[in-house]
Amino acid sequence: MRVPTLDFSVPPSEASGRPSGMLNKYTVPSILQEVDRASRALAAPDDALATAIISEPLRDLGDGTVIDMELVGLAPVSRERGVERRQQIQDLYARAFESEIVTLTFGLVEAWYDHETGRYIQETRPPALLKRFPGRFGFVMLDYQACAEQARRTIEVLNATGAPKKIIITTLRCRSRAVFPAWISWSPIASRNRRCGRCARRSSTNSTMSTTSQAMKW
Q: Is residue 117 part of a domain?
């Protein structure tokens, strides 16, 4: 069995640790955004539109460089490199529509949101960026209804192209109040809870969480 993500590689200056680590998606909406974008780019009638679609996460810093708001890490790169790397990611995600088995691991219910673009972003923005764009980014605590709907939409998009797939859904349990709460075990979405070795030794995840899908501006 071949795992396409293992073939992904970037220069060491763009990623700390293993190169594929920058592909990590911690929330359901961030997974949906990548899958949906890959689907739309595949269906684009010409290369120019496809390039525009895959470049949606790139944000100009005003000095000729861009950052990718939907990848782990915030190392600025040239726009040319940003688009090139996004094409690498598009080629990778396009493989999902050809695959027989797709594994989705849902992690955090805490998310950051870009009010200007209407899209979820991958990581907490650094203070310098928050200061430069006041009020642009907001924190969202995702509730069950939002996560369930986004998960269903992700599966629908995956199965809309190519043959129906076997989709394995897992959840990553880390420290208390940081990931999916207890209700995931009885959700209509078939799931298997998984703990990473380091986090399994931390506090129990059975505590009650207060959730809301309303974004708070910062």
A: no
